[in-house]
Every structure is written in C-alpha cells, then in structure tokens.
Specification:
39% of the residues lie in helices and 14% in strands. The strands form 4 sheets. It has an 8-stranded parallel barrel with strand order 1-2-3-4-5-7-11-12, surrounded by 5 helices. The chain is globular. A hairpin with a 4-residue loop joins strand 9 and strand 10. By secondary structure, it is of the alpha/beta class. Helix 6 runs parallel beside helix 8. Bound molecules: 6-O-phosphono-beta-D-glucopyranose (BG6). Residues 15, 18, 127, 171-172, 227, 298, 318-319, 361, 365, 408, 415-417, 423 line the site of 6-O-phosphono-beta-D-glucopyranose (BG6).
Length: 462
C-alpha cells in the first residue's frame, strides 16, 4: 500500500560547508565555518598556513558532485537540498560585484541535477557567513547586513531563476540563541539584547528575501527553516506545562514572525521583562509583513522541560540542551529517538500556520563499519528512518500537508556541532576518517537500497 502521494518530494539535504571542501578555491572568501575547525561549539581560530580542518576538503563534493548526484539519482531522489556558500558569491560579503567563478560552480551543479530531474531546494545561508562581514561590520548586529544579504539573495535569484524554484532563507534560524557566532556572527558571550537585535535584523533580511524571490521568480516557493525543538513537560504539574509552552515559544516565535509577519505579543512581553529594547523601525515592520510560502524544519529528537531544580539536568543535542525523557532511548550521541514526536510536531506546525510543511532534515548520526567486502550494514539507520517515516504517513492521514522529506546527509559529511566524520548520516559511505585519511571513495550502504525502495514504492515497504 502506497503511503505517500506521487508528487511527494523525496530526497536528501546537505550544506555547502559540510560537503564541498575547496575552501579556498575559485575565489571563495573565508567564512565563519572555516574559522571553527572543531565545529559550532568549538573555538573560533585564526587560520594559519599549514593548519587543518576536516571541512577544508570535507567530502570533496565541490569536485565529485557528478558522481554523488548520479548516486542520488540511482536512489530515485526527486529533490536535493543544498546550500550556497555566500563566500563563493561575495567572498568578503560587501563587494559590489559577485564572483563569477562561484556563480558558475552552482550553475554546473544545478545543470547536473536537471539531467536527472532532481529539483534543487536551496538554502541561502546554512551556518556560514563571510568573515569579512563579521570583522568589518560586527556581523548581524549591524543593520547594514540586511543590505549585503539583499544583494547576495537578489544576485542568486536572478542568476538561477530558471533553475531553482524552491528556496529557504536561513537554516535553523532559531539556533542563534544557542550559537550566536554561527547564527549571527556575534561572539558567544554577547548580551541577550545584542543577540535579539541581530536576530531581528536577520528576520527582516529573511522577509526581504521572500519579497525579492516573489518579485524575481514568481513561480518559485520560498520557505523558512526552523530547528524543530519539540519539548514535552516532564510532568503534568501546571507549572511544568506552562514552562514547556514558553520553551516551545522560544523557537516557534521565529516561525510566528516569518509566517504571521510581526513579533508576537508574548515575545514583546519577554523582551520588556528582560529590559531589552529592540530597534524596530517602521520600515522593518512593513518588511516583516512579507511571509513565507511554506514552513520547513529539521527534526532529530525531542526533549523535556521541568521547573523542578533537582530534575533539571540538561544534556546537549546538536544545538539545544534538554532534560532527558525517561520513556525514550538514545542514539550513540545521546540524542533521544522519538518518531511519534515527528507526527506531533507536524500536526502542531500545521495547526499553528496552515502552511505546507517540508521536513528538510531528519536522520541518524551513527558509527558505521566498512566491511572487507565493501558493504556497510546499517540496519539501525533503516529502523530509525522507517519509524519516523511511518509517523509522517500518519500525519498525512491526519490531514497535514507535507510537501516532502529530505533526509539529513544522504552521503556522509562533516557534522556541524563537532566537525566529526565518525558520526555518519549517509546512505552512501565516504572513505575518510577523523585524521583526514582515506580515499574519499563512495560505497552504497544497506540503507541505500532500502531508501531506493521507499521512494520507488511510495512508502509501501515501510
Ligand atoms: C542541523 C544542521 O542542526 O543538524 C545540520 O542544520 C547538522 O547542519 C545537523 O549537520 C546534524 O547535526 P550534527 O552536529 O550531527 O552535524
């Protein structure tokens, strides 16, 4: 029995700084990701000749994309979510003219995808921005960033208007509250007020990008992208239930601004109580009214909230910290596995926004073993995804409009939080280890054949 509609956009999602490598090629400028060789929660360093970061080569997608796209096509992908490295287009961020070599690279990539009828979905900014904008302007704390982002967004909309019809503005826009350097180019110890002001600038830039996309590519759809940080109350104590509502609002408010066009009342109260006075101009208010066409999000795990001091022991997921749920098991990285949470989240977002939803990241980071015969038996990954996809099918039955599902890292890549390659998400194994050794050869895992069947049968094999 088919569980998914024929036009469901099956595929995978990757990000430039986690796959491309070629960090200094074809005029690319230095990005915030380049100066965090140990990942989002590692230190920010000055790059010096001879130092190394796994991300410098990553999985060499910059050069090997034809082979990788062919493998995605073999699985039957209909959609590939990628991100454009802003620094390939505007190396320092504030140039008047874009870098043609960078633009040409993504042309080649989109042409390759078109050969196989794979729709690109492009994130404008996925966990990286030009270091030039951080050093010279102080990152998103500076209002001028709105204009620099506009120039970049308009440039790529113009250039790829005939090739890309699905766009996303900022990856996991709510993460800036937890990792301000990666999110908005501010130091980790910045004040809350500075971070919220930078977030406001980014929300305005996101809305203006939506407007520009609608003007330049009228038949395109553009969405936001939220880190789906679903929280449950640890108990049914009313205080816990209310604290959970607030915790969920701490990330949902980004979606509220992007879908409803204004800062919600509960956030204005929060800012007031924190004595944070944001500079929101009349022009900003007008800009924010341009809302997204669809809502996309990542989902890996859920967490709990408690007001009980003693029970409030938090563990870190990729970005968020959360209290562990006693009813769930964990991945090798301590992320709690909760397939039903995905159905809950889909229903929650649908109820709240009534806009089509797109699951643009989901998957299991695990250690895989390449056997002597070149096979990789990753039944644990199949189990994880199978259980999550069954819940997506349930949500479809609930009447939720889901456009598609792009699993995170369909090919092994460098993880974001700690820049590891030992933590693998792919259906395709890449021969590279933590020391950077390996041939970079690609191998099909057991899950490769499984996902191929999922797509071919519309989920009948789940
Ligand atoms: C999401 C990011 O937070 O989680 C991805 O959008 C990231 O870039 C993914 O890779 C998984 O996290 P990690 O740290 O395991 O790579």
């Amino acid at each position: 029995m088919k569980r998914f509609p024929d036009n469901f956009l099956w595929g995978g999602a990757i990000a430039a700084n986690q796959v491309e490598g070629a960090w200094q090629e074809d005029g690319k400028g230095l990005s915030t990701s380049d100066v965090q060789p140990q990942g989002i929660f590692g230190p920010v360093v000055e790059r010096v000749p001879g130092d190394r970061s796994l991300k410098d080569i990553a999985i060499d997608f910059y050069h090997r994309y034809p082979e990788d796209v062919a493998l995605f096509a073999e699985m039957g992908f209909r959609c590939l979510r990628i991100s454009i490295a802003w620094t390939r287009i505007f190396p320092q961020g504030d140039e008047a003219q874009p870098n043609e070599a960078g633009l040409a690279y993504y042309d080649r990539l989109f042409d390759e995808l078109a050969r196989y009828n794979i729709q690109p979905m492009v994130t404008l900014s996925h966990y990286e921005m030009p270091m030039g904008l951080v050093k010279k302007y102080g990152g998103w704390g500076n209002r001028q960033l709105i204009d620099f982002f506009q120039r970049y967004a308009r440039t790529v909309f113009q250039r790829y208007q005939h090739k890309v019809k699905l766009w996303l503005t900022f990856n996991e826009i709510n993460m800036s509250l937890h990792a301000p350097f990666t999110g908005v180019g501010l130091p980790g110890d910045s004040s809350k007020g500075a971070i919220y002001q930078a977030i406001h600038h980014q929300l305005v830039a996101s809305a203006l990008a939506v407007k520009a996309c609608h003007e330049i590519i009228p038949d395109a759809k553009i969405g936001n992208m939220l880190l789906g940080g679903l929280m449950y109350p640890l108990s049914c104590k009313p205080e816990d239930v209310f604290a959970t509502l607030q915790e969920n609002r701490s990330w949902l408010f980004f979606g509220d601004v992007q879908c409803r066009g204004a800062w919600p009342g509960y956030m204005l109260r929060f800012l007031h109580e924190q004595q944070i006075e944001l500079e929101i101009t009349e022009e900003d208010r007008l800009a924010l009214r341009e809302t997204v066409d669809f809502v996309s999000f990542s989902y890996y795990m859920s967490g709990c909230v408690t007001t009980d001091e003693e029970l409030n022991q938090k563990a870190r997921g990729n970005i968020l910290s959360m209290v562990q749920n006693p009813h769930l098991t964990c991945s090798e990285w301590g992320w709690q596995i909760d397939p039903i949470g995905l159905r809950t989240l889909l229903n929650m977002l649908w109820d709240r926004y009534q806009k089509p939803l797109f699951i643009v990241e989901n998957g299991l980071g695990a250690k895989d073993k390449l056997e002597a015969d070149g096979t990789i038996q990753d039944s644990y990954r199949i189990d994880y995804m199978n259980d999550h996809l069954l819940q997506v099918a349930e949500a479809l039955e609930d009447g939720v409009k889901v456009m598609g599902y792009t699993s995170w890292g369909p090919i092994d890549l460098i993880s974001a939080s700690k820049a590891e390659i030992a933590k693998r998400y792919g259906f395709i194994y890449v021969d590279r280890n933590e020391q950077g050794e390996g041939t970079l050869a690609r191998y099909r895992k057991q899950s490769f054949w499984w996902y191929q069947q999922v797509i071919a049968t519309g989920g009948a094999n789940l």
